[in-house]
Amino acid sequence: MSRFTPLVAALATTLLAGCASTAPSSPVSSAAVQVQVPTVAHPAGETPQWWYRNGAAQAASHGAMGGKATNVILFLGDGMSLTTVAAARIFEGQQKGSSGEENLLSWERFPATAFSKTYNTDSQTPDSAGTMTAITTGVKTHMGAIGVSAGTRSDCADSLNKGLLTWLQLADSAGMATGIVSTARLTHATPAATYAHSPERNWENDTDLTEAAKAAGCQDIAQQLLSTSRYGRGPLVALGGGRAQFTTIEETDPEYDDKVGLRLDGRSLVNEWKQTHPQGAYVWNAEQLKAAANAPALLGLFEPDHMRYEIERKDDPSGEPSLADLTRAAIANLSRHSEGYVLMVEGARIDHANHSGNAYRALSDTVAMSDAVRAAVEASSDQDTLIIVTADHSHTLNFVGYPARGNPILGKVKDKGGEDGAGALDLARDGTGLPYTTLSYANGPGFTGQTNQQPAGPKTYPHGPSSFDPAKGRPDLTHVDTEHPDYMQEALVPMKSESHGGEDVGIWARGPGSQAIRGTLEQNTIYHMIVQATPRLRQRLCDAGTCDAQGVPVELPNGKAFERK
């Protein structure tokens, strides 16, 4: 027998090599379609059409065309870096009494995962406007752009012919129900990118527009929420903050007697919405939201500015709904429409807390978004609803040291002698003998030098200084409660507001078409994953002549062609 061993081994090797040469290196759906994309010089050759076709090609090659989604829900954790996700996972687990590391946030149980490359056309580290525009239109664009292709941020006239059709407007045109939910102002960058077109994200109400922009014909973002109904019915659900952007300086806020609206043009957009939706419900507190459960259209503006952080909701005098509450209300409304729906839900204040250098609020709002995703899973079926969870960009939050298993994620690092682990459990020390926290920021207002607002040492939220003195070494945190909600993590570089980060963010998905979401994707490909995996959206694009012979939408759609006749 032994004399045949070399022959058998050689034959086995040949057979294995043959199998290896034919097996795909990664899962490829039977619906995978190849789309040719021209080679261009980067970045000079990147036109809006090139970005659109490149995203379509990547989605089609992954098999997104095989999706049969009736509904789509996109969750956007603004500024939700992978570090934020990891820390929030532990934070939630420890709140439940476990060590934390073994915990999973709701979307981390989804079967499909990928990475998203977040850069803008003009910046390695992006902002929320350009990134969300990439996600909603399939085209990457400049920092600050809302629903327009790349150009000059302050040039209204240049932007007028660069409007991009969003998948919310596409869905509206296709007869689907549409909704927007955010804990930010509804006119803020992320929600605005689902319905508005502006080269400058800060043109939220009429007082924000420059005279040149007004003369050139640009409209403020708030009024565009109403005018986007030209594609169909407009959003049947719009829930978030930002009352003041929609009301005039003559209107007293219904919740705060000392506040009025911001508009100077005399237009009460809330009243205009009511006139357009006589059977609809306008609400501004939790009880009104519950009472409006059967309304055919729903506008909820729960704060004059952004909605409250999750930890502060209990302090709202009129009662403010959670992100999970808003999500349930939106799905309950939209799911009544048999033609299907698309919904965008933003956990906006994760970003704001990171900017403020306050990890507690960033993590607790991430957990609140996990609750909202869980609510969506419970209210939908993975047989007909594609749910995607992602972030627009990262932040500079760091997860450092060698803390022992179960060490409080917001606490000071306790280890057993660092990487060697040779000692007793005790506070870890830096090179000068001082303890330090597991979480810190690379830059931001947590810099420990004296500022014009707070003395040298650990900083307390809120803190947005305009001047800094150099730090004289690190503070001694031995007796500082770093787990307090208002403790601000130390920052290396002094800045009034902590900056975004430029690294990739995560994508998690479940439902029809989710198997296409894998690998490392350009951020604008998320749009193409959605439209290709949703037959009603894909067919609407094909009916407008934007598809190739394989039925893949590859031509940049002209938004005017999708407006009601």
Automatic annotation (TrEMBL):
Going by the UniProt record, its keywords in alphabetical order are: Hydrolase, Phosphoprotein, Signal
Superkingdom of the source species = Bacteria
EC number(s) recorded for this UniProt protein: 3.1.3.1
GO MF annotation: an example: alkaline phosphatase activity
For region Disordered, the annotated ranges are: 445-465
Q: Which SMART domains match?
A: alkPPc
Native organism is Stenotrophomonas oahuensis
CDD domains associated with the record: ALP
Q: What is this protein called?
A: Alkaline phosphatase
List where the protein spans the membrane.
Answer: none
Please state the span of the N-terminal signal peptide per the UniProt entry: 1-22
